[in-house]
Each structure stands twice: as C-alpha cells, then as structure tokens.
Amino acid sequence: MEIVELKTLISLVETGSVTITAKELNRVPSAITTRIQQLESNLGIQLFAREKKRLIATSKALELYEYACQIIKLVNTAELNIKVDKPGGKFRLGALESMASTRLPAPLAKMHEDHPTIELELTTGIRDTLYSALINGLYDAILIADAPIDERLERRAVFQEDLIIVAPKNHPKIRTPNDINCPNILVFKEGCSYRDRLLDWYDSFNAHPKRIAEVTSYHAILGGVASGMGIGIVPKIMFDQFANKHLLTAHTIEGSLGRVQIDFIWKRGLLSANTSALLNYL
Question: Whole-model pTM?
Fold first, then answer.
C-alpha cells in the first residue's frame, strides 16, 4: 500500500464521492477510481459498494480507514519534526566518567525537563575511545579533554578542570616524583588523557613510575590509593566528592599539566537540535 492510496481511501470513506475526493487530492476522477481498484485488487477484497453516484464503505474499508488515519498522522508528524528540527528523539552522548558523575547531571536534568521527548543514551569512556566512536558516527556529541585537532570536528570549550595527584593518608607533600613513597601509579588504560598527563609529569623530571596498574573507574583509583596501592591522578572535583577523602592526601600539579580544558565536540556541519540544546545548557 502506498501513502497516496491511503489518502484516497480516507477521503472516499469520509465523502463517499469520487468527484469530491478528486478535488481534494487534485486528481481527475478516473485516477481516483483506478487507485481504489488497484488497492482492492492488491488486497483481494471489496472495499466499497457502488450505489448510484456514491461509494459505500464496507466493514473492511472502515477497518482499513482506522489504520490509514493513524499512518497518515504518523507520517505528517515525522515530516513536521524533521523539517522543524526541534529537540527530540534519540541523542547519543559520550563523556568522560568524571563528567558524567559531576558536571553533566544538572544540565542533562534541565534539558530533560525542557525537552522530555529527547531519548538520551549516555555512555562513558576514555578520550581515545570516545573520539574514535564520534568519528565513526556512533555518537552525536562527546565531552573529552585533550582532543586531537581535527578539521572534521567542531568544538566548544565548556569546562576547566584542576587535576591533582592523590596519595595515601599522611603522605609527605609531593612536588616531584622523587617525593613519592609508593612507586606504583593507578590509572585508566592507554588512551586516557589524564594518564598521559601524569606520565608527562614524570617525564618532565626524567623519571618513570615503577609499575602502572590499570583500573576502570575513579572510585577504584581513589579506593586503591587509600589502601596504599600507589598514587593516582584525578580531577579535583572527584576528590572533593569522595566519601573517604580523609584517607587520602591531595597534591597540586604545577603548570599547564594540572589544568585541563573539557571540550564539547560534534562532527562538522552536524549540529543537530539535540546537540545545540545541550550546548546551551552546558
């Protein structure tokens, strides 16, 4: 069945007249008759009984009429939403774990309040994984730090984060790697921008950690450091929200390595209504 056939059926059921239907659909009467005959032939049923100059809808025609009205309404809604491009529908967002747990809840809640038809799909990950997924079309937008310069992307700086080194309770002040009592570091896997910054900090003093232990969450880093497994690097806001921070010590990273910019990034030319809405809240 085609849309034009359903529109023809709707008009014929409502008017009972081929002539009026032809005027409504801007067709000649013979085209209307042909459409209905084709529809009846394809379905293998009689939809209308001919009575003088009127067409009387059968029970099957009335049943099909109900479906046709729903289909046409859905088609019209889809066309309107696509043309207007207003916020709504699926929105695939990727973000660093620290963003998802600290910076994003308030703007996402406000966006949901104002645009309840947006169906948010939020996924967390590390910089390289989120960046590759955006390039491959798996996300509509991402929030990451230290994103590569890429002409295929557009971006807006939205947050500044202070990074700190966390060490166990009562650890002496850390200014250089030589001050660290526990030689192991707890970090995310390769491709994490904060891991890169911690290793760059070591390199700036011509030093290297004894062992790198890869973990999957900031709570694992903070909990592991509190238990004496080593040191880690985390956004200060994550440390501030950690329930057991009395078991830790926080140490400032001097210079640019301790200050990171978080960018909101989308593919060039694809700033959708959903992406634009979240950008406004950010």
Answer: 0.71
